[in-house]
Design brief:
This protein has about 130 residues and is mainly alpha-helical. It contains 5 helices and 3 strands. It has a 3-stranded antiparallel beta sheet.
Length: about 130
Amino acid sequence: MAKSKSRAAYMISSVAEQYQIHPQTLRLYEREGLLKPSRSDGNTRLYTDEDLERLEVILHLTRDLGVNLAGVEIILNMRQKMGEMQAQIQEFISTLNRELAARSRLAEPAAERNWLVPVVNARPPAANNRRNR
């Protein structure tokens, strides 16, 4: 069985101290579905770096912008959906670019077959006029 890559995880007390919030506030955020920390074998909450980034967004919204928890939930859901949509758009653009490149490679030989006269070392008309004077 392959081991999963080890990630740093922080206990609730250290997170609460670091962000100057009460541990009950973190538990409230979890109850409201805003944070989803993993659990240890002993059922201790463990916060990853991703959880801390999300907590920073929550704290910015509540402390600095005065958004209530219902608003925070809506904003976080919208951010997630926007991220998913951005990924879909990037995939669509990649697919479109691959299709266009494939079609342009197929179209070039067909265009050459339609030439009436092969063009070799063509000069602009002004250069031909100067030479003939």
